[in-house]
Recover the amino acids of this structure.
């Protein structure tokens, strides 16, 4: 079975979601509204695994009540994981606040054993360091384009990275695919995000598998097994 470890399922129509029914999808959220929608989708679609959280891009408009609401839902066991959360080092003026909020999510992850779906653009090392220190046991660094030398530490910590269909046209992501061990890789779409004219969606995972199979020189069936196993381990 194909897997998509990072998809904004709430942003697709029901009709599109039906086309993705043969793919296991971790659906991430960005704020309280999408978190609620994601939980609702997971009740209507068997293949959708709900993750909730607040995206670092949304912290400026977020109210304290909103944050509390998401944390409460997590504690009530309404989701299978936490995400999309993290730190975006490009938004310098809110980095301190991003780190504070991220630590709250790490705390819940460590306490409840929930996997995290991480956004860490321009903050890879920092985010990794916080997670280790806070005892986060399971996590995915989504669309990893961080330092190659950090890959080994991420693997040793038992964390995963995801590879996006953009790997065909994004050289630094391709170098990651070439360097990373197969036992730390999972596929993702980040749909419906639009990357340089490419509207990403879960149905692109099949071609992505073909691409990975060529680059890593492993047959398609073995590759599917490895990636599905990684996905299940991430979920615990
Ligand atoms: Zn995303």
């Amino acid at each position: 079975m194909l897997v998509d470890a990072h998809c904004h399922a709430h942003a697709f129509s029901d009709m599109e979601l039906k086309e993705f029914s043969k793919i296991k999808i971790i659906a991430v959220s960005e704020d309280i509204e999408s978190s609620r929608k994601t939980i609702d989708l997971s009740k209507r679609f068997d293949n959708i695994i709900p993750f909730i959280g607040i995206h670092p891009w949304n912290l400026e408009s977020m109210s304290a009540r909103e944050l509390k609401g998401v944390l409460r839902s997590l504690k009530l066991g309404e989701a299978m994981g936490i995400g999309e959360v993290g730190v975006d080092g490009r938004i310098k003026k809110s980095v301190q606040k991003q780190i504070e909020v991220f630590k709250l999510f790490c705390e819940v992850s460590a306490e409840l054993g929930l996997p995290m779906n991480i956004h860490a653009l321009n903050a890879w090392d920092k985010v990794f360091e916080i997670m280790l220190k806070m005892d986060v046991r399971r996590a995915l660094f989504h669309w990893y384009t961080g330092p190659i030398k950090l890959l080994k530490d991420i693997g040793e910590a038992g964390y995963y990275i995801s590879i996006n269909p953009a790997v065909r046209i994004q050289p630094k992501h391709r170098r990651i695919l070439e360097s990373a061990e197969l036992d730390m890789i999972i596929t993702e779409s980040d749909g419906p995000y639009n990357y340089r004219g490419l509207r990403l969606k879960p149905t692109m995972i099949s071609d992505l598998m073909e691409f990975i199979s060529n680059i890593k020189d492993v047959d398609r069936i073995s590759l599917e097994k490895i990636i599905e196993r990684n996905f299940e381990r991430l979920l615990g």
